[in-house]
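Lab notes, practical 5.
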Amino acid sequence: MERITLQWLGGQDFELIDTPSCDDMNPKELMLFAVAKCSAMTALALFEKMQITINGFRIEIMGKLTDSASKPQSLFTAITQAYHVECPPDTDHHRIIRALELTHDKYCGMTLMMEMIAPVSFDIYINHLQERKVHY
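Output from the prediction step:
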């Protein structure tokens, strides 16, 4: 199983979390990285277009291989993306879901390309951040 995690830093910036740097990734990890980055950039563009405010965003992508170890002849048999979104408590989660469905099903070219290799599924996790009131 190959795994890539991208954490949004704000703007168009992301960092890899618990993942080798791009220079140290094998070719299959690089493919997953390309899908994650494409999905992330597409989702951010849709959030902006739909005027959805988010506080945090992380994408995890996992690719199941035909062999337990990443070998040159290993092929992806399934790919799963997990979208983790943090947003203000008054955010309509249906709009977030719609933006991510459009990202996955229509606008992210890398996801569409990977679906020609293996099935690509996705999960969405939304965390509505609550305001904290501090009393002195």
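Observations recorded by the TA: The radius of gyration is 16 Å. The domain at 2-128 is CATH 3.30.300.20 (GMP Synthetase; Chain A, domain 3).
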